[in-house]
Amino acid sequence: MIGHILATLLPVFLIAGCGAAYGRYRTPDIRSLNTLNMELFVPLLVFAVLADRQAPLADYAWLATAAAAVVLGSGIVLWPVAKWLKLDIKTFLPPMMFNNAGNMGVPLLVLAFGAEALPAAVVVFIVEMLLHFSVGLYMLNPRTSLWRMLRMPIVLASLAGLTINISGLPLPGWLLESMHMLGGVCIPLMLFALGVRLLDIDFSDWRTGMLGALLCPLSGLVIALPLMWLLPLNELQMAVLLVFAALPPAVLNYLVAEQYKLAPQKVASLVLIGNLGSLVVMPLTLAAAFTWLYTPL
User: Fold this and answer.
1) Residue 255: which residues within 8 A CB-CB, separation 6 or more?
2) Radius of gyration of the chain from Cα atoms?
3) Which helix (H) or strand (E) holds 236?
4) Which one-letter DSSP state was computed for residue 142?
5) 10 Å Cβ neighbour count for 155?
């Protein structure tokens, strides 16, 4: 089992480390790289996975429900904690709710549980993204337009993929394969970009960052663990939900805070120290998943 955990985590941290090393000496335009990823490669992967009729989406309805409950439930659980500690709700809660299902989650789940986990990984990623750009933006600014979310490429790709899958319309194999190949670029690119972002860690607010590194996975697991046994999830879906619940804060939280001018440096500490904390949290989570839930053949 230790070998399996290492085989899962070492590629994740090695690719992120390459991003950090390259960013240290070359200072790439990571914002443009992320824009390309989020507007082209990720939507293509999402569409290809959802449109593929070999992945019956009805089988993932309960997993999507559970993922939404983890995201929203984390905020509900931690809201009184944030009030008690007198933390800024708009700064602290979103990073605790919206985790790194993209940069870390999708690659980690595929490496851990094999290609058969890709549809489940994409489903929980879509749920997290849709909630982030609806509930999350509303938390920061109640005047945020819903139309803004609907124009996002990943949302359009999700709707198009769902339509194709539900309608049963067959797509040419060469088209799906091309989209899978282009979409596959996003997985290592997410990790590379995460590594570059790690260079921006600000330790000036390390206490809040350490608190977030503990509470983000803990709050997710508090919600996920009972759902794993209450909902009709198969073993692979339970394992995916467990890992999803323990993921650190999404890097996107920092970009959104920067856009809305809501203490971006504090959010950066929460996000990036939380991702460093995953060096401890993820091996323990994977060990639990491999031991009690699902071990790929």
Assistant:
1) 34
2) 18
3) helix 235-245
4) T
5) 18
Cα 115 to chain center, whole Å? 17
* Residue 18 burial (10 A CB sphere; 0-12, 13-18, 19+): middle
Report yes or no: 247 and 105 within 8 Å, Cβ to Cβ. Answer: yes
Q: What is the DSSP string of 176-229?
A: HHHHHHHHHTHHHHHHHHHHHHGGG--GGGHHHHHHHHHHHHHHHHHHHHHHHH
C-beta of residue 84 within 8 angstroms of C-beta of residue 207: no
Supply 184's token pair.
Answer: 């596959």
Taking the CA atoms of residue 102, residue 108, residue 111 and residue 114 in that order, the dihedral angle to the nearest 10 degrees is -70
Q: For each of the chain's 297 residues, which pLDDT tens digit applies?
A: 667 777 777 887 788 889 889 988 887 877 788 788 878 888 888 888 888 766 667 789 999 999 999 999 999 999 999 999 988 898 999 999 999 898 789 899 999 999 899 999 999 998 998 898 888 888 887 776 767 667 778 888 888 888 888 787 888 888 888 988 888 888 788 778 777 877 776 666 678 889 999 999 999 999 999 999 999 999 999 999 999 999 999 877 876 776 677 777 778 778 888 888 888 999 999 999 998 887 666
Q: At CA 256, angle to CA 250 and CA 260, rounded to 5? A: 155
DSSP string, 21-74: HHHHHH---HHHHHHHIIIIIHHHHHHHHHH-TTS-GGGGHHHHHHHHHHHHHH
* C-beta of residue 197 within 8 angstroms of C-beta of residue 17: no
**Residue among 114, 131, 75, 123 nearest 252 (CA):** 131
How many CB atoms neighbour CB 17 within 10 A?
15
